[in-house]
């Protein structure tokens, strides 16, 4: 008795599921004068973690830039990874002329090493100034995967904000929220919570300066992020495919504003 009923219920819910899957969310509007810099640690961060945000913002502006700190040379194949990074970013909407790589000798890919905040500030600040960046996007203090290179960028960005003169108020910074592990790997289930997620998506979130912000993907964005990830030929070992299948960061990004510490 119960089983056929469940089956009917399942079939009945299919259209709802399809709607949630295929619906591309309407992203929060980016104000016309915003100039955005995504600050990442390694090639492939852009598609592993930041895809929903890049795909929401890139159609809205030509003032979206990417700065990757290291070329991911931990395995000695950094130079192979640089063109992979450029192709991936291009698919996510940032062409090569707006994507930059630092490759500072003291900020190299290393799983056991945190990066010095002073060096981050002095390396990143010239890009912020040259492109008149108004919005800096980076990792939070847990760096999604607790990679010290990732969370170093949070502390570097915090220090960068704090070091600016008080009248340079037009720079704000946001950190990508690290989800607890049960949310991090529940990617497809995220779809079911989309009604709830939409409820929190506000129209002009960035320009009104509210402290949290959310971007979500529909299936089309998911597949684009998948394609971007495929550009990283040197990285596609089996567990990365698992990540693609289960990661929530393919479907949603939540951002929290990094507050300036002012005396
Ligand atoms: C930089 O951007 C801000 C905010 O959009 C704007 O007020 C300012 O005039 C810009 N400065 C330059 C030098 O372009
Ligand atoms: C990574 O950093 C550690 C020290 O934290 C150092 O011993 C090691 O040689 C570094 N690895 C590479 C590949 O530079």
Description:
The chain is α/β, with parallel strands linked by helices. The chain has one domain (31-257): LmbE-like (Rossmann fold), CATH 3.40.50. Helices cover 43% and strands 13% of the residues. The protein contains twelve helices and seven strands. It has helices at 2-22, 45-48, 51-57, 78-91, 117-130, 143-146, 148-163, 181-184, 187-190, 194-199, 219-229, 238-246, and strands spanning 36-40, 64-68, 99-101, 135-139, 172-176, 212-216, 252-258. Strands 3-2-1-4-5-7-6 form a seven-stranded mixed β-sheet, with helices on both faces. Helix 4 links the parallel strand 2 (64-68) and strand 3 (99-101). Helix 4 packs antiparallel against helix 11 (219-229) and helix 5 (117-130) crosses helix 7. Mean pLDDT is 86; it is low at 198-205. Bound molecules: 2-acetamido-2-deoxy-beta-D-glucopyranose (2 copies). The site of one 2-acetamido-2-deoxy-beta-D-glucopyranose has 5 residues, from loops.
Layout of strands and helices, then pairs:
Layout: H1 2-22, E1 36-40, H2 45-48, H3 51-57, E2 64-68, H4 78-91, E3 99-101, H5 117-130, E4 135-139, H6 143-146, H7 148-163, E5 172-176, H8 181-184, H9 187-190, H10 194-199, E6 212-216, H11 219-229, H12 238-246, E7 252-258
The protein binds 2-acetamido-2-deoxy-beta-D-glucopyranose (2 copies).
Residues 74, 108, 110, 112-113 line the site of one 2-acetamido-2-deoxy-beta-D-glucopyranose.
Signal peptide: 1-31
EC number: 3.5.1.89
Family: Belongs to the PIGL family.
Tell me the CATH topology: Rossmann fold
User: Within the largest sheet, what's the order of strands?
Assistant: 3-2-1-4-5-7-6
Tell me the total number of β-strands: 7
N-to-C SSE series? HEHHEHEHEHHEHHHEHHE
Q: Helical proportion?
A: 40-55%
Mean pLDDT: 86
| Anisotropy-based shape | globular
Number of helices: 12
Low-confidence stretches: 198-205
Structural class: alpha/beta
At the first level of CATH, the class is Alpha Beta
The number of distinct structural domains comes to 1
Ligand kinds? 2-acetamido-2-deoxy-beta-D-glucopyranose
């Amino acid at each position: 008795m119960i089983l056929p009923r469940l089956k009917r219920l399942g079939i009945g819910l299919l259209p709802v599921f399809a709607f949630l899957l295929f619906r591309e969310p309407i992203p929060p509007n980016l104000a016309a004068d915003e100039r955005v810099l995504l600050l990442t640690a390694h090639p492939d961060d852009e598609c592993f973690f930041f895809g929903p945000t890049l795909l929401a913002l890139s159609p809205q502006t030509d003032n979206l830039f990417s700065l990757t700190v290291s070329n991911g040379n931990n395995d000695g194949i950094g130079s192979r990874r640089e063109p992979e990074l450029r192709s991936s970013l291009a698919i996510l909407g940032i062409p090569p002329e707006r994507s930059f790589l630092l490759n500072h000798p003291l900020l190299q890919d290393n799983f056991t090493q945190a990066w010095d905040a002073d060096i981050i500030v002095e390396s990143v600040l010239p890009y912020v100034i040259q492109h008149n960046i108004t919005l800096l996007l980076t990792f939070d203090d847990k760096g999604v995967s607790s990679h010290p290179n990732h969370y170093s960028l949070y502390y570097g960005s915090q220090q960068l904000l704090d070091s600016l003169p008080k009248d340079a108020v037009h720079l704000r910074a946001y950190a990508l929220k690290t989800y607890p592990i049960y949310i991090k790997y529940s990617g497809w289930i995220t779809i079911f919570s989309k009604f709830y997620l939409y409820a929190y998506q506000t129209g002009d979130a960035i320009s009104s300066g509210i402290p949290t912000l959310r971007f979500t993907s529909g299936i089309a964005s998911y597949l684009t992020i998948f394609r971007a990830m495929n550009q990283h030929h040197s990285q596609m070992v089996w567990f990365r495919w698992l990540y693609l299948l289960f990661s929530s960061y393919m479907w949603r990004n939540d951002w929290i504003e990094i507050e300036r510490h002012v005396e």
